[in-house]
Specification:
Strands 1, 2, 3, 4, 5, 6, 7 and 8 form an eight-stranded antiparallel sheet that branches. The radius of gyration is 15 Å and the shape is globular. The chain has a single domain, classed as Jelly Rolls (Sandwich). The two termini are 19 Å apart. It has no helices and eight strands. It is mainly β.
């Protein structure tokens, strides 16, 4: 799958410590950016570096706001709690963007880590839903023979 850097929320973003953190990037859905207009969309996540710490957990939420400061961020959709045992390199999961969603101008991902001294590194990209089905990925740096 080819992804667009302007539709990337996180590119190998290292998360650490219990609590919440915003994605490195947000997406500006202004009038000149018809991202996936008319197509079902999803956020595709891939774990780059396995979760560490004691009993780590992760919840990822898609947030929207009318400003890039996200002072009034609204959670649109969230994953359930993902246990650290699942968060291994190459593990993929998705957030389906609701089709009836009227986006505010800006969107981002909010990550919430739980556990004791949790860590994980992952990437997240907004993609058409059809592109996120059936893809197979390996951890960063793997070789194909």
């Amino acid at each position: 799958m080819i992804t667009d850097g302007q539709n990337t929320y996180s590119a190998s973003q290292a998360l650490s410590g219990a609590g919440s953190a915003a994605s490195t990037n947000s997406i500006d859905h202004s009038s000149d950016r018809d991202v996936g207009i008319g197509e079902p969309m999803c956020v595709s996540f891939i774990v780059n570096v396995a979760a560490g710490g004691t009993a780590p957990t992760l919840v990822a939420s898609l947030q929207v706001d009318s400003t890039s400061a996200f002072g009034s961020a609204v959670n649109v959709v969230s994953t359930g709690t993902i246990a650290g045992a699942s968060l291994v390199p190459g593990y993929r999961f998705f957030l389906v963007v609701p089709s009836d969603l009227s986006f505010n101008q800006h969107s981002r991902i909010n990550y919430t880590l739980g556990g004791t001294s949790p860590t994980v590194t992952l990437s997240a990209t907004l993609v058409p839903r059809q592109f996120a089905q059936g893809d197979v990925y390996g951890p960063s740096g793997f070789s194909v023979q």
